Amino acid sequence: MSTTTAVAPLTTQDADVLVTAAGRAAEAAGVTVSVTVLDAGGHLLAFRRDDRAVLISGETSTRKAYTALQLNAPTAGLVDAVQPGGPFHTLPTALDRPLLFIAGGVPVHRDGRLIGAIGVGGGAPEQDHDFATTALEVLA
Fold this sequence. Notes:
InterPro entries: GlcG_carb_metab_protein, PduO/GlcC-like, PduO/GlcC-like_sf. The protein has 140 residues and is α+β, with helices and mostly antiparallel strands.
């Protein structure tokens, strides 16, 4: 008989903390971004898009979060994997949504378990990744 320990899910309050922290990090850097937070099932928990952000940044942040969630890995480390001949080159056609393999998507874990993901879009890829990881530090 195996026993499992319950892990608290990602809540809307947690998601608001992540969105706020990522937004503040971006504002401090002078960058306008969109931020998306998904729960472990891929459902939208929180979203922020500044009116000054490029419209596509909202879709970008959502796709980054979805990719990080589906692969349980930061999207920053996946860029080489999607190049022709890479292990994930054909993966986007196998899933029900397209993936976006650019830095800025980071899975959210609690007690070692995947509970959601955050995606940031609008800045340079390295900046988006930094904004997302900064937000995770605030949640911890």
